[in-house]
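Late entry, evening session. Most of the bench is empty. Finally got around to the prediction I had been postponing all week. Sequence below, unchanged from the version circulated by S.P.
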Amino acid sequence: MRTAHGWLLLMLALLVGCSGVEQVERIAPPSAPAALPQARAAMETGQYAAAVALAGPWATTSPEAAKIVVETRMSWAEAILREQPEAARRAAIDQLSLAIAVAPEGELRERIAARMGEIAAETAPVPALETPAPPRPHAQTATPTPPVRPTYVVAQRKSFEGSGESGQFSSCVDVQVVGVDGPVEGAVIGVNNGEHSYQSQTDAGGYTERCGLGASTWSVVLFWTPGSGDSGVATTVYLSGAPEQRAAVVFQER
């Protein structure tokens, strides 16, 4: 007959045993293989064979490994096509076939199948097409002559050739654009000497100016006028940089 002390020991033993069973059942499953990060790094750097060798052994037991293998073979196939677009289509399809073998059901498998179909279609011979008959000649119609754009010329020019260099940057150039109907507002004027370039637009009186110019030969260009478009008429003026020098150019429509 068991004593009360014996029964107590038996119950403690049973409790310890149950606790041990629970501890065994609660052990977490093993983590993903350590080779998978290396496999993904190899895939991303174009080392496709190494990536497959690292992740391949785990492809049937690890979804992450299977994904790496599938993505690697898809990238491998595209790389083959880029390097040898004609001779390597068969090899590309082989890589995609290996990828679809381990791909899970769903969108990824459908993408692989679609790509295989595209490559196969590109490989298939193209049937010869019948040469279409030449079109019957039609009566030619007269092409309307576009209206002639208004042209501008340099009507006036004031320059200071031979005045030397003052060592200052205080000269100016005044520009006016005059159309057949009067001053042109909004014309685009350019002033440059190869090192410095400026642009401005004319005001309601057709005027614009550029000051702060140093000793140099300056090109003055009429780039564009409203209603007439591009112009490209140009001339040059010389300035010494002295503040009392103001060159002048007038562009006039003819």
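Two things to note before I forget:
The longest helix spans residues 4-25.
The two ends are 134 Å apart (CA to CA).
Will write this up properly tomorrow.
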